[in-house]
Structures are given as C-alpha cells and as structure tokens.
Fold this sequence. Notes:
Distance between the termini: 7 Å
Number of strands: 17
Oligomer: single chain
Order of helices and strands: EEHEEEHEEEEHEEHHEEHEEEE
CATH architecture of the largest domain: Roll
Shape: globular
Radius of gyration: 18 Å
Amino acid sequence: MKQATVFKYEAFSDIPDLGNPAGIVFNGDDYSDEEMQMIAEMAGYNETSFLCKSGEADLRIRYFTPGHEMNLCGHATVASLYALIEKGRLQADQTYQIETKAGILPAKAAERNGRVYITLEQAPPQFLPFTGDKEKLAASLGITAEDFHSGLPIVYGSTGIWTLIVPLRSLKASRNMVPDNAQFPAILRDLPKASVHPFSRETVHPESDLHGRHFSSPFSGTTEDPVTGTASGVMAAYMRQYGGSEAECLTIEQGQEIGKDGKVEIRIAEENGEMNIKMTGTAVYAETINFQLP
C-alpha cells in the first residue's frame, strides 16, 4: 500500500493548536492529483500543501482543501516555508520564488526575535461588486442586515483567491454569527465558489487594527478557516480602497470565536499606481500523521 506522511504545522501562531493548521507533504511529486485530493480529505485540515519541484521557481506548492484544489493559500505557504527552514531544507534570511496557480510569488524568510517569519507577496488586489441579496446574505450568516456596516460596501475581493468581504458594525455581530455555508453559492451568484469574509474595525486585542472571520465555500469541505493570510491581505487592500485607510501596516486578528488566536501582519505599498500587498506570519510544528492510501 502507498503511504503518505503529513506534517501538521500551525500558522500565524507560535503555540500549537492556537493558529491555523496546515498539512504539509514534502514529497508532493510522488502523488497524482487524485491521491493529493485523497490525502487532503483524510488529513481534514482547511488546506494541505504539497511541495513539488519547479522548472520556473525555487519551489512549487499545490494546495488542496478536503473538497478541491486551491490556487493559493497564505497560511499553508507560511507553514510550508517555515517547515522547510526548520528541517534545514531552506535557509532563513533569503527570498524564494514560489510557483503557485496564482502565479510565481516571492516569499522572504527572516529571523525576528529568535523566530522565523515568512513574508509573502500576494497577487495584485482585484474587486468586483456584490449584486446578491443582502437580507439573504445576513440570514446565511445568522445575523441581520442591520449588522452590516452602513458606510462600507460589500464587495468581492482577491489577492489570489476570491472572497466576499463583508464589513460589520461591531465585534458583537462577528461573535453572533452562525453560518449556513450551504446557502452561499445561491447568494454569491456572481462567484458561487467564493468564500465569505466578514470583519469589524472593533477588535479583541487593543493592538489589532481589524478583526476577521472566514467562512469557507461549501465546495471546500470545511466550515471556518481559523486565521487566513490571503483574505487578510485583500481585506487590508479593501480598507485602502474603500475605507479611507492610509496605514502602511495593519495587524489583523482572527480565530478568537473558535478558540484560535492568531494574528497576521499586512503591509501595503503603492507601486506604479498599483497596491502591493505583503503578508507576514510565523508558524509552529504540531504533529506528524501517517496515512495509508487505499
């Protein structure tokens, strides 16, 4: 029988079980697409990354949820680079080119206060209007339309993966949400496979700038992503585009409602009239699991 070893790392935390878990398979080239999907389903994490050789970059990463392949995953990229450095396969204080289905993206590894942090440059931000029913959207989240922020628009955003950005009036609204993910595709009629990312300016930690939650598309096979790097990046870009923010660095917290306490650092720069988004986070090893493929 063919076997697979999956290393579990927690991204955006230095404490096991508090960040966002990612499965990492170092020998990704050994598995077919079908086997990768099977391994991701057996592992059950929001994303499992398969590290492969690349003819165009230093490394190729493929990302699978339990339900389908993703173009990009921020937290799994942070976890993967951290794991490679921890195991001595890559070195800190270098920049690596990572081939993904969202393009070739640079990832910088650097030591800070005795820990390795990974900075990933995301794809240029894109936004599209939301044309769905706000009342139905609110109901699918277990809140009311009055809980949406009246001064900020609900839009689709992407820095590699499309998500619906939903500004909330308060942290209380975020805490009250109980999503019914099965309703999302009918409501997100423009991009039915998009996830939903509500956020508030009110935060749990005083040093944080924004508080987010991330609800998965029902096609992914998961319900909520504890701490999301890519969605945090596009949320910061959203605040520059729609929220009047001129901050060059935002600290985004996520996961507190589900017993996960993670933080993502997002830096925003303007280059040639286009926003450049960089996400920084660390990770920590949790456990190793072996699977036998049928």
